[in-house]
Write a structure and sequence with these properties.
The protein is of the alpha/beta class. It has 18 helices and 29 strands. Helix 1 packs antiparallel against helix 7, helix 8 packs parallel to helix 12 and helix 12 runs antiparallel to helix 16.
Length: 665
């Protein structure tokens, strides 16, 4: 695998070499318990105090309190618990506290989940209320002004983890002060450390949690600032560590590592200046614009962290872009790392009322303040390579420059499928069940490969996709005047059946007909419960318009029985290949990923490229073969599992899938 370009620093950062050295030294030589009274313990205690003092200087803690924690989630839990306990006590004394727990619409999910949890556990019965943001991602101060007198607690962010948008903390403070709000105020400061100037003691902020792993420290170490006079209830009680504020023997290796990061931040020279970071972001943005036509940035650069870019590209899902970047060795994410595995639009962008396609297709690119010129140069070059991969595979406009495909291509969106039949010899194609969201991509493929469209067909009554596609095909339409369409020596014919209309495809006979035994593919509305009488043969590959069970054989259509599941652990793959020398490794990543990744081998063997979108074109050949072991792999394992299960459903006994796949290699 090529050297990776890590651009997901908002999720977590690599560990600073000096931090690794400091942690190792703490474990080797400074391993004492800071609560012990002997010299070894006193040395550990001195180190703990020195790191705390440095943190207090950098954050402007003043006469406030700074406690070491395991990370931001613990800090958030402690802050919310402290505030809600105090609110409950004040209400018991008859004092006015407000009845709302107000949190920003773009907060990290840890905040509303924690508010709901402790509100329920403590029985405070407060109402959780969302504080909306505007189209630029900033809190709506007019709404806050209206609700502040009723707020018992207000939770906002210093900077958003998905978009990098910087909150107007001065504006929020002014509203809270002007309204004489009784609310306790917590500011999630995770993304602020090392990126924003902080002077906490001069603010109205009551609680500010931090996490070390967002700024080159290891996971498992964080800090919580508490303003002098703000109520405090320990989340963990026990041995009295951290001045009784947080029980449990301190994570000395983590504290030492965090101390090394803070030292670098205080000394300067290791982390880049704000001006340098702004220049780096501008260069990345320019590279993205050149590589990805139509790109839209989802947050204004003038009010966002210099280290964060959030963007969407028309016609591409966030998963496709992540697959592309990952194949090229560029690590980005689809938003918060805590929720990126969920196939849902970004709630942060939805809160900003951005169009649905931008929310569903957003990609976050983030780097840390330790980035240098060489790193940005390499990142820009890799981004340009990604754009070239898309052009070579006809996924962005590139008229007449692509190599003509041959065979069946499946494009899917939201559980439905469109099918394209390409005949390279005649430079022609047909489109079946075009989906409106895929119309621009289908048109780009056709224009790029410079083929003539012989038919645009629907198996169902909904012609919205056809209506969306036809206007985009100017100059490439050569529609047949008859019900059948010829693609070179192959023919596509309609076949009415009990559930609607199917289209059969195969080699034409001398008289221009399509005999049942020559039907290689049947395109239908559903691959299940199909009845085509004597029009097809048992080995005909059935391609459905719905992604679930989209590929079947006529003999197996409607049969959902699964054969024994063949899953392979990546660590056992070498032994399996040694035991099965005839096994074929099959990479099911898409063509643009192959171009981005470059040629290579896996586990010392050449791999056959059969993209998942071209799987239907190969299954018939495999089913007629000697059933040698087929081992499917991809980036994460999701697509290879789908391919293996498809083959098993069709009766191929030796289809295997490798869990983890390239990500673990």
């Amino acid at each position: 695998m090529m050297n990776e370009i890590y651009l997901d620093a908002n999720a977590t950062s690599p560990v600073l070499p000096a931090a690794i050295a400091a942690a190792e030294a703490a474990m080797r030589e400074g391993f004492g318990n800071p609560s012990s009274s002997h010299c070894t313990g006193l040395k550990a205690k001195a180190m703990l105090a020195a790191v705390r003092a440095r943190a207090c200087r950098l954050l402007g803690v003043g006469d406030g309190q700074l406690t070491f924690t395991s990370g931001a989630t613990e800090g958030i839990q402690t802050a919310v618990l402290s505030a809600l306990c105090a609110i409950r006590e004040r209400r018991a004394r008859g004092e006015a506290t407000g009845d709302l727990l107000l949190y920003g619409a773009t907060e990290h999910k840890a905040v509303p989940e924690t508010l709901a949890h402790w509100n329920r556990i403590l029985g405070t019965g407060l109402e959780l209320r969302v504080l909306p943001v505007d189209g630029y991602g900033r809190h709506q101060l007019d709404v806050l002004r209206e609700l502040a007198p009723r707020a018992a607690m207000v939770c906002t962010m210093a900077a958003n983890n998905e978009t990098g948008v910087i909150s107007d903390l001065d504006g929020i403070a002014a509203v809270l002060c002007a309204s004489a709000s009784p609310a306790y105020w917590m500011v999630d400061s995770v993304q602020a450390l090392g990126k924003l100037q902080l002077d906490l003691a001069t603010t109205r902020i009551d609680y500010a949690p931090f996490s070390g792993h967002k700024l080159y420290a290891p996971k498992g170490i964080g800090m919580l600032y508490v303003r002098r006079g703000a109520p405090y209830t320990p989340l963990m009680c026990g041995g009295g560590q951290e001045a009784g504020q947080r029980a449990g023997t301190e994570n000395m290796a983590g504290v030492a590592a965090l101390g090394a990061v803070l030292e670098a931040l205080e000394a300067g020279g290791v982390l880049r200046t704000h001006e340098e970071l702004f220049d780096f972001r501008a260069r990345l943005a320019d590279a993205l614009r050149a590589a990805l036509p139509g790109i839209v940035f989802n947050a204004p650069f003038g009010n966002a962290l210099a280290t964060t870019l959030n963007f969407s590209v028309p016609g591409f899902s966030s998963k496709e872009l992540l697959d592309l970047f990952d194949a090229a060795g560029v690590r980005v994410s689809a938003g918060s790392a805590c929720s990126s595995a969920k196939a849902a639009p970004s709630y942060v962008l939805e809160a900003m009322h951005l169009p649905h396609w931008r929310c569903a297709a957003a990609v976050r690119m983030s780097f840390g303040p330790m980035a240098d010129q060489a790193f940005i140069d390499a990142a820009c070059a890799r981004i340009a390579h990604c754009g070239e991969a898309l052009r070579k595979t006809c996924l962005i406009p590139s008229a007449g420059q692509g190599e003509t495909s041959d065979g069946i291509v499946q494009l899917s969106v939201d559980g439905a499928s469109s099918w394209l039949i390409f005949d390279a010899a005649s430079a022609s194609c047909a489109v079946i069940d075009p989906l409106a969201p895929l119309a621009p991509r289908i048109a780009d493929l056709i224009r790029c490969q410079n083929v003539q469209v012989r038919a645009v067909l629907d198996t169902g009554a909904d012609g919205s996709g056809r209506a969306a596609l036809l206007p985009l095909l100017e100059g490439h339409l050569a529609m047949a005047s008859t019900a059948s369409a010829m693609l070179g020596q192959q023919i596509l014919v309609p076949a009415p059946h009990s559930d609607g209309l199917a289209y059969l495809f195969g080699d034409a006979a001398a008289d221009g007909t399509l005999p049942a035994q020559a039907v290689r593919f049947a395109f239908v509305g559903s691959a299940l419960a199909l009845d085509l009488g004597g029009l097809v043969n048992e080995s005909t590959i059935v391609c459905g318009a719905h992604d679930t069970g989209a590929v079947s054989t006529y003999a197996g259509a409607g049969n959902e029985a699964e054969t024994r599941w063949h899953g392979l652990d990546e660590s056992a793959l070498d032994a399996f290949l040694s035991a099965h020398p005839a096994a074929m490794l099959i990479d099911v990543r898409e063509p643009f990923e192959h171009v981005a990744a470059g040629a290579g081998t896996w586990h010392g063997r050449p791999a056959c490229s059969v993209p998942l979108s071209r799987l239907a074109d190969r299954v018939g050949e495999w089913l007629r073969s000697d059933q040698r072991p087929l081992v499917f792999f991809c980036r994460s394992g999701a697509r290879s599992e789908k391919a293996a299960r498809c083959l098993q459903r069709l009766g191929y006994r030796n289809a295997y899938h490798v869990a983890g796949n390239l990500s673990l290699n």
